[in-house]
Design goal:
It contains eleven helices and eleven strands. The protein is an alpha/beta fold and 305 residues long. It has two domains: 236 residues, Alpha-Beta Barrel (TIM Barrel); 55 residues, 2-Layer Sandwich (Alpha-Beta Plaits). The chain binds iron/sulfur cluster (2 copies).
Length: 305
């Protein structure tokens, strides 16, 4: 096994334990900051910036004014409709430290590989018994690829299963640095049309489609498609993705993820508008026609996943 740099640091915005999704067995999901995309339906908008992001819960605020006093750049004012002027805020987190009511929360903190591994070790017995391990999610794990690679290496050295949830968007160097240490890949393919992809996610799909053949060489690769009305919710658009999946090695399963609005409230906490307000969530049975198309292409298809 290659040497591991336990002192390398990265920016993490959440660690969720006991997940039954996102790979085999029972898993811990480590959410890394930074994503080149800004999908309109993103349920983790706090992940997109590599820097810490402040969330303000108006309903919890007792208007004590401590945050206003500690902010060195004067980004907080009752006159701001969203409390924090995001153009001025540096993400230093001082206001969250000073807030007695938990109304301000900083999303994103610097952690070393050693610190993350220490968290993971709390569930080492569970991983061994269930065949589980670590899943790197985000954001896009290929953004902090050196940190991701060290985390995966460290996990493999413990005998844990390693998985990444990726949109496949990163440099060839990022892919080659991370993929050798991955057992399971959950690869998002969102749309085959590059213009539509760009309109709804902020970037063309060209890099994703270029990286997909290399990434899918991992024998346990699942393609995941978030199915979003007005974007890709039609059997024809799903068929185009399944036809592409046929050209890749290692793909046996496609997951169709019905559109949901679980992350919508986070946009308000970040002083942003949610772009798909007018769109209703889908039920699993709404995807039956899309599932049939995928199965006709020879794949196992799971709705949800
Ligand atoms: S994170 Fe720092 S800069 Fe931003 S509002 Fe809070 S104290 Fe001010
Ligand atoms: S410190 Fe917290 S409770 Fe006090 S005004 Fe600021 S956000 Fe509100």
């Amino acid at each position: 096994m290659d040497s591991i740099n336990y002192n390398l640091t990265g920016t993490v915005f959440d660690i969720q334990r006991f997940s039954l999704h996102d790979g085999p067995g029972i898993r811990t999901i480590v959410f890394l900051k930074g994503c080149p995309l800004s999908c309109q339906w993103c349920s983790n908008p706090e992940s997109q910036s590599i820097n810490p992001v402040m969330m303000y819960k108006k309903s919890e605020c007792i208007h004590c004014g401590r945050c206003i006093k500690v902010c060195k750049v004067k980004a907080i004012s009752p006159e701001n409709e969203t409390w924090i002027d995001r153009d001025k805020c540096t993400g230093c987190g001082e206001c969250a430290n000073a807030c007695p009511a938990g109304a301000l929360v900083s999303k994103g903190k610097t952690m070393s590989v050693q610190q993350v591994v220490r968290e993971l070790k709390k569930d080492a017995t569970t991983y061994r018994r269930s065949g589980g391990g670590i899943t790197l999610s985000g954001g896009e794990p290929l953004v902090q690829y050196q940190f991701a690679s060290e985390l995966l290496k460290a996990s493999k050295s413990q005998g844990w299963n390693t998985a990444i949830e990726t949109a496949g968007i990163g440099s060839a160097e990022a892919v080659e640095t991370v993929i050798p240490y991955v057992d399971t890949v959950l690869l998002d393919i969102k749309h085959m049309d590059k213009e539509k992809h760009k309109r709804f996610t902020g970037a063309s799909n060209e890099v994703v489609l270029q990286n997909a053949p290399r990434i899918s060489q991992i024998s346990d690769t699942v393609i995941r498609v978030p199915v979003i009305p007005s974007f890709n919710y039609s059997p024809e658009e799903i068929l185009a993705i399944a036809e592409f999946a046929k050209t890749l090695t290692g793909i046996r399963t496609i997951h169709l993820l019905p559109y949901h609005t679980f992350g919508e409230n986070k946009y308000g906490l970040m002083g942003k508008d949610y772009g798909l307000k007018h769109i209703k969530p889908l039920n699993p049975e709404d995807l039956n026609a899309c599932k049939e198309v995928v199965e006709r292409c020879g794949f196992r298809c799971v709705i949800g996943g």
